[in-house]
Amino acid sequence: MRCDRDNGGVAHPPEPPPLSSVPSELHAITVSDRRVLRGASLLVAGRVVSKLAVLIFLVIAARLLSKAEYGLYSYVLILAQTFGILADPQVSIIAVRDVSSGRRSAGVAYWSALPVAIGAGVLAAVSLIVFGTIDSGPGSTLTMLLIASAFVILGRVYALGLDLLRALGRFTAEVTLETTGTVLLVVTACVVAAAGGSVTAVLTVFVVHSAVGALVCHVLLRKQVGAPAGQTAYRRRLMRSGLALAGAAGATAVATRVPLIALGLVASAAAFAELSAGLRFADAFYILALTAGQAMLPSIAAVLTEQPQRALGLIRRAVGLMLALGMAIGAVLASFGDELMRAVFGEPYASSGVLLSILAASLPFMGMFWISWFGLCAYDRERVVLAITLGLASAALVATAVIVPAEGARGAAWVFSATLAGLALTTYAALERCAISTGRADG
C-alpha cells in the first residue's frame, strides 16, 4: 500500500497485483538487512573506484595536454555533463523501482524507458550544439560538439542499462562493468593523450567507452528484456513520475549550489577559491551519499513488496550507518581542517580550515537526505520529494540573499550546511511518516 500526505497519511487501497514477481537475484539479497547493506556497500565501493580512476585521469591529462588543450577538453566535457543532467527525465529511477518491486517486467520497463532516454539525450545534444555554436568558449569546434553530443546520447543509454542491472539485483555485474569500463577508459585516454592525440581524439575515447558500455549492458540484459515490448500508457506514467523527480533533482542542485554562485558574484576571487577548495572534500562525500541512496532503492522497493513491515527498520539501519560515517569523517575534517587544506591545496589555503569545518557539519546529513530521497521514491512519493526540495530551494535563495553578501565565504558555507540539514530532516520525517502509516495499514 502507499501512504498519501494529502489524505492524512492514510494508506491507499491496494494497487492491482504486480505483473511480475520481485527479481530472483534481488530477492536473494533482500532476505536479510545484512545482505542488503552488503550489496549497497559493494555498489558504493565500485563507484568510489570509478571516481578515483577518473580523478587520476584528470591529473594525468593536465600534465600530458597543454594548458590550452586541457582547458578546452574540460570545457567541452563540462558542457556535455551539464546538458546531460539538465535533460535527464529521471525515468530510469522509476523503472528501477517498478522492476525491483515486481510491478513491471524488466522487458516492459526497459523498452518503455529506452525511447525516453534516447529522446532526452537527443534534446540535450541539440541544445549543446546550439549553445556551443553561439559561444565556442575557449575554442570548441563543431566536430568536438558533435562528439560531445554523441557522448550525451550514448551515456543516457548506458546509464539506463546499468540501472536495470541494479534493479534486477545483479550488483556484481553492474560494479564489474562500471569499474572495469572506467579503468579501461582512463588507461586508453591516457595512452591517446601521451601519444600526442588531440582533444578530439581524447573525447572520442569517451564516446567509444559509452557505446561499448551500452552494448555490453544490452547483451547482459537480453534474456531479461527480450524483444521490444514497451507500453505507451506505462511510458507516459514513467515520464510523469520521472519529470517530478527531475524537478526535485534540479531544485536540490539550486538549493546546494546557490550559495557558491552568490559568493562568486559578491566576493573576491580568493574568497571564492577558498570555499571551492573546501567543497571538494564535501562533494566527495556527497557523491558517496548519493550512490548509497541509489544503491538502496531496489532493495527498499523489493522489501515493500514482500515484507513491508521490514522496510522502516531497513531504512533506519541504512540512515544510521551513513549518519555515523558522516559524523566520523566530518569530525576528522573539522579537527584537521587547516592541515588538510594545506596538504592538499598548498600554503595559500592553510587558513581556510574554518570553512572546511563549517562544511563538515553537512556530512552527517548527506546520507540521510539521499536515502530518504530514494526511499520516498520507493513509496511512490515523487511529489513529496518535489515539494520539499522546492521549499528548501526557496529558503536557500532567501538565506543566501540575506547572509552571503554580509558574511562572505563563511556565510555561504553555513547556508550550504544548513540547507543540507533542512533537506535531510524534512525528507526523513516524510519518509518515517509514510513508512509508519504503510506498515500499520498492511499490518
Number of strands: 0
Alpha carbon gap, first and last residue: 11 Å
Shape field: globular
Instruction: Count the DSSP helices.
Output: 15
| Rg, Å, rounded | 22 Å
Approximate helicity band = over 70%
The secondary-structure class comes to mainly alpha
Summed up, the domain count is: 2
Averaged pLDDT, please?
Answer: 88
List keywords for this structure.
443 residues, mainly alpha, 2 domains
Description:
It is a single chain. With 443 residues, the protein is mainly alpha-helical. The protein folds into two domains: 13-230, no CATH class; 237-443, no CATH class. Helices cover 83% and strands 0% of the residues. The chain is built from 15 helices and no strands. The chain has helices spanning 24-29, 33-64, 67-86, 91-100, 106-134, 142-167, 171-194, 199-225, 232-266, 269-306, 308-335, 337-345, 353-360, 363-378, 382-442. Mean pLDDT is 88; it is low at 5-19.
Q: Would you spell out the secondary-structure blueprint of this structure?
A:
Blueprint: H1 24-29, H2 33-64, H3 67-86, H4 91-100, H5 106-134, H6 142-167, H7 171-194, H8 199-225, H9 232-266, H10 269-306, H11 308-335, H12 337-345, H13 353-360, H14 363-378, H15 382-442
Helix pairs in contact: 2-7, 2-10, 3-5, 3-6, 3-8, 4-5, 4-6, 4-9, 4-10, 5-6, 5-9, 6-7, 6-8, 7-8, 9-15, 10-11, 10-13, 10-14, 10-15, 11-13, 11-14, 11-15, 12-13, 13-15, 14-15
